[in-house]
Amino acid sequence: MERPTTPAGVDRRRPLAVSASERTAIEARARRTGLSVSAYLRRAALDDSLPAAVDHELAAELGRVSGELAGVGETLERWLAGRPAVAASEVRALLAGVDEARLVLRALAGRL
User: In whole angstroms, what is the distance from residue 68 CA to residue 97 CA?
Assistant: First the structure.
């Protein structure tokens, strides 16, 4: 995402007292939203909406797990309908996969 330029009329700098760890956190949050630090702080201070910070790695992992669960659901649906026949061992493997996916989702949710 391209960072916005300085708005017209912004011509003064204001010092801001923050600790090193606060500065690092502010810079990281601004970077995740695609804004400059100045734009991020202006929007946060003026109660303007801030772009959502997206954890792309987390979103990709959630998508992968979601796709796996969809496959599990389709296979169980076929098994329950009896077309084509699915071996009981395959159903057990799928259920084990569901349990594993549940654990992955729990871990991912902890990162939100």
Answer: 8
Cα distance between residue 30 and residue 39, in whole Å? 8
Instruction: Classify residue 36 as exposed, middle or buried by CB count within 10 Å of its CB (0-12, 13-18, 19+).
Output: middle
Q: What is the pTM of this model?
A: 0.41
- The 10 Å CB-count burial string (b at 16+, else e) for 63-83 is eebeebbeebeebbeebeeee
Which tokens belong to 64? 């992968």
C-alpha 26/C-alpha 40 separation (Å) is 8
What are the pLDDT tens digits along the chain (112 aa)? 445 556 666 677 778 898 999 999 989 888 888 888 988 888 888 877 766 666 677 778 888 888 888 887 787 777 777 766 667 777 778 778 888 887 887 777 776 6
